[in-house]
Amino acid sequence: MEIHIDGDFDQEFEDEKVESQEIDLENFSNIDAKTYVANVTVQVGADFHISTHDINPERMKISVAEQTLFIREQKPHYPHNHQKKIYICKAEYKMTITVPQTAVLNEVRINDFSGRLNLSDLNMQKLDVRANAGSLKLQDVTIQNDTKIRLDAGNLDIYQCKMNSNANLAAGSVKIKGLQGKNHFQLAAGSLKTLDDRDDQTDYDLSTTLGSIYFHGSRMGKHFYKHEGSANQLTAISSVGSIKIQ
C-alpha cells in the first residue's frame, strides 16, 4: 500500500507547484462550489472578492456567470513511483470568499471532500452543504428558507444562527449555541451538545438508541420531550452518541 499525504520524506518527490491568488469578482448572488482539499471560508468583506493560498491555479477554476460564483477544485496530483513511500504535505490549501455586508445571497451550495468549511456573518435564502470528510462551522448566519447539511465524517458547529435546518451526520458531533428556528439533527455515531440558558424557550424532541439524554445536568433516559409553544424547535435523533442540553 502507498500512502500519499502530499509532502516529502524522500528527495525523489517534489511538492506540487502552489501559488496564491487575489481575484476581484463580478457581483453574484449564488455560490456553487465543489472543492477537494481546500479549507473554504465565506465571510463579509469590502467587496466581492476571492483569495486562495497555496493552491495551484491550474487546479482551481473560478468564474462568475448569471449571478453565480462557480468554483471547481480538481483533485491534487501526488507524484509517486512503484516503491512504498510516504508523502507528507507542508502546505495548507485555503480559500476565502468575501461578499459586501449589504449582500444577500440567494443560494449557497458547497460539495466538499475533506476541507473545513467556515461561513460567518452571512444572510442567505438557502444553504446546501455536503461534505465527505470535512467539517462545517456556521457563525452569525441567517438563512431564510431551507438549510440542508450532510456530513459523512466531520463535525458541525453552529453559533448564534437563525435557520430552519435538516442535518444528517454519519460520524461527527454537533455543538450548538444560540440557535433559533426549527432544526432537525440525525446522528448515526455522534453526539449533540447545546450551550443555552435554562430559561431558553425552545421545544425539544430528543431520542437516542444507545446513548443517553441529559437536560441541564439531569439524565432523562432514551427519550425527552418538552413543549413550550415556542417558535424555536430542536429535534435530535442519535443512534450511538449522547445528547446534552446545557
State the major sheet.
Answer: 22 strands, mixed
The stretches of 5 or more residues where confidence is low (pLDDT under 50) are 1-14
Tally of individual helices: 0
Q: Give the percentage of residues in beta strands.
A: over 45%
Rg, nearest Å: 20 Å
Overall 3D shape: globular
> What level of helicity do the residues show?
under 10%
Overall residue-averaged pLDDT value: 88
InterPro entries: Toastrack_DUF4097
Pfam families: DUF4097
Protein name: DUF4097 domain-containing protein
Organism: Lactobacillus melliventris
Short overview:
Helices cover 0% and strands 57% of the residues.
Structure description:
- Helix content is 0%, strand content 57%.
- The protein is mostly beta strands and 246 residues long.
- It has a 22-stranded mixed sheet that branches.
- The radius of gyration is 20 Å and the shape is globular.
- The N and C termini lie far apart (45 Å).
Record the SSE blueprint:
Elements: E1 3-5, E2 21-24, E3 30-35, E4 39-45, E5 49-53, E6 60-65, E7 68-73, E8 86-88, E9 94-100, E10 105-112, E11 116-120, E12 123-131, E13 135-139, E14 142-151, E15 156-169, E16 174-180, E17 182-187, E18 192-194, E19 203-208, E20 213-215, E21 218-221, E22 223-226, E23 233-238, E24 243-245
Parallel strand pairs: 1-8, 3-7, 3-10, 4-9, 4-11, 10-12, 11-13, 12-14, 13-15, 14-15, 15-16, 15-17, 16-18, 17-23, 18-24, 19-23, 20-24
Antiparallel strand pairs: 2-5, 5-9, 6-7, 19-22, 20-21
